[in-house]
Prior knowledge:
- The chain contains 13 helices and twelve strands.
- With 329 residues, the chain is of the alpha/beta class.
- The N terminus is likely disordered.
Amino acid sequence: MIARRSFVGGMAAVACVRARAQPAATRVWRVGLLRPTTRPAVIDFMSMEVVLPRTLAELGYVEGRDLVIETHYADDDIARLPELARALAASRVDVIVAVTASAVRAAMQATSTIPIVIWGNFDPVQMGFARSLSRPGGNVTGVLISPDGTLAAKKLELLKEAVPAGKRIAVLGPADPMVLQVQLPELKRAASALGVELVVVTVRGRDYARAFDEIAQAKPGSVFVAATTYFLFDRKQIIDLAIRHRLPAIWEWREQVIDGGLMAYGTSLTARLKLVAEVVGRILKGTPAGDIPIEQPTTFGLTLNLATARAIGLAVPRALLLRADEVLQ
C-alpha cells in the first residue's frame, strides 16, 4: 500500500509539473479591415490584404494561429461604411484598420474605444480625426500616404512640365467625395498659379471607359489621376485607357509606373503599407493608439516610364529626365 501510494503520489506530482510546463492557451488577436472598395477578384501583391498579414507574421502574429483578419468591403458604396464599421465594433476586434477618410469617419462614429489605424491620402488633423500628428489622442493613429495629406500641387507642376503646351488638365476622381475634397482645393490653387484649366471627371461605379470618353471630349493635354486606393486596384484598366487615348498621366506611387503608368511622384506604397502593420503590432503589444504618432512620409521620388512615353508619342523634356530619381526604359 505504501508503494502504491508513493507511485500514485509521484504520478500526481509529475502531472502537476507537466501541467505547469504546458504553455498557456495562445490568445487570438482580431484585426478588422474596413475598405470602401469591392473584394478584388485577384489579390494584388502590394495590397493591404497581402502586406498586412505578411508583415504581422514577421512580427509574430500569424494568421490562422494567433491572428484573425476580418475584412469588410463596402462594394464601392460608401453609404454602407457606417453599418460595416458598427459590425466590426460589435464583433469586438482588437484594432480596426480604416482605408480612406470615409472609412475612418465611419469607424470613429462606431467606436471611441477600439484602436483605429488610418490609411489614406488626407489631413487627419484638418478633418478632425486627430488632435495633432505627433500626439493624435483618442483611439486613432495611422499612416499617411503623403505629407499633410496630399502631393497634389507638386504632381500638377510636374505634369505641366512634362506637357508644357497643355493648357487643360483632366482630373480623374473616384465616386467617394472625400477623396477630391482633400486634393481638389490644392489642385485648384496650383492650376491657377500654373495658368491651366482643370476638368474634373468622376468615375461612376467602375466604368473607366466612360470616364475616359468624357475626358477625351474635354480634349485635355494630360490627366491627373487622384491618389486613392480605388485606383490602385484598377490601375491596369486606367493605364491601358490612358495609353489608348495617348494621354500623359501622373500617378501617386512608383509601383503604378512599374505597371505601365507614365510618371509618379510620391513614395513606395509597399513600404508605407508595411508601416501600417507595424503600427498595428505596437497596438497589439499594448501601446495606446493615441500615443503613437501618425506616420508621415519624408522622402519622395519621381519615377518615369519611357516605354509608356514612347507608346503615347510623348517626348519627355530633358530637364524632367534629369530630375527623375528612377527612369524605366
